[in-house]
Amino acid sequence: MSSDRSYAQYDIEKKSLLVAYLLWFFLGYVGAHRFYLGRPLSGFVMLVLSGIILLVTLLSFGVLGFLWAIVGLWWLIDALLIPGIAAGRNSQIADRLLGRR
Q: What is the predicted pLDDT for the residue at 63?
């Protein structure tokens, strides 16, 4: 790839902090921001935890508080981690497209 073309492709593929935070704020409990930032495994774990919470909510209210606390804490911690995750993902994209090491 030519350098100009690589930079253009990088601009297309790089991850936006604004989009990451919007996904985190509105859909963070299901890990949407993690899927967007190229972390599908941890996004899937958050999605599964949210599904368990829904199931537990339907069956009983006993364990619900504990599970919500786990997801809620993870959600808050991700607010601090998003800039680093996005920078790392953008660096991976740049390395792939621009041949950086």
A: 66
